[in-house]
Structure formats: structure tokens, C-alpha cells
Amino acid sequence: MKILLLAFFMAFSLSAQNIPELRVGVYQNPPKIYLDQAQRPKGFFIDLLSTIAKKEGWKLNYVVCEWEICLEKLERGEIDIMSDVAYSKERAQRFDFNNEVVLST
């Protein structure tokens, strides 16, 4: 029984190491995305992304930056995801956009 438990814990720890970690740009644009008074990421897009991450088994690491700096970090590959970026043909040549409209203003 101890060998089986050890194998189970070893398998669990190995699978936990394979969880994709995604770096998410966070900037001040309430109520869509922002840092609260305790400097925690909050907002509509944070809630949505957290729900998707939980379902997909992703670990999210938040990177705080000004909007323009976040966009530059995204282009350089320093962050993986940035929410609330308006589509344009020029941006579509540099970034991958989702096909679902999540929120329209």
C-alpha cells in the first residue's frame, strides 16, 4: 500500500509541474481590468480568465504594467495574454486575437 501511495504522490507532483503557466498583463481600466486597493488583479476580464484557467488547468501569473508597456511586453513575448485590446488589421499582423466577442462597449 505504501508503494502505491508513493507512486500516486509522485505522479501527482509530476503532473502538477506540467501545468501551463501564463503571464497576463494587468493595467488600470476599471471595471474591465484593474488592481484593487490591495494591489490584487480584479475586474470582468480577470474573473473570466480565472474561470477559463480553472477549467483548462492553467496557472496565471499577473504582470502589472501600463497599457502601452503591456502591449510592448506582449509583442516581445514577455507576457502571454493581454485582455481588452481592440482589433485592427495592423495589430492582427502582430498578435493573435480570439474569434469570440466577450464584451462590447
The poorly predicted ranges are: 1-16
Shape: globular
Helicity range? 40-55%
Strand content: 15-25%
Number of H- or I-type helical stretches: 4
Number of strands: 5
Can you put this structure into words, describing what you see?
Strand 2 and strand 3 form a beta hairpin. The strands form two sheets. Strands 4-1-5 form a three-stranded parallel β-sheet. It has four helices and five strands, in the order αβββαβαβα. It has helices at residues 2-17, 44-56, 67-76, 89-94; strands at 21-26, 34-35, 41-42, 59-64, 81-82. 14% of the residues are buried.
Task: Give a brief outline of the structure.
With about 100 residues, this protein is α/β, with parallel strands linked by helices. It has four helices and five strands, in the order αβββαβαβα. Strand 2 and strand 3 form a beta hairpin.
List the helices and strands and how they pair.
Elements: H1 2-17, E1 21-26, E2 34-35, E3 41-42, H2 44-56, E4 59-64, H3 67-76, E5 81-82, H4 89-94
Parallel strand pairs: 1-4, 1-5
Antiparallel strand pairs: 2-3
List its traits.
105 residues, alpha/beta, two-stranded antiparallel ribbon, 5 strands, globular, disordered N terminus
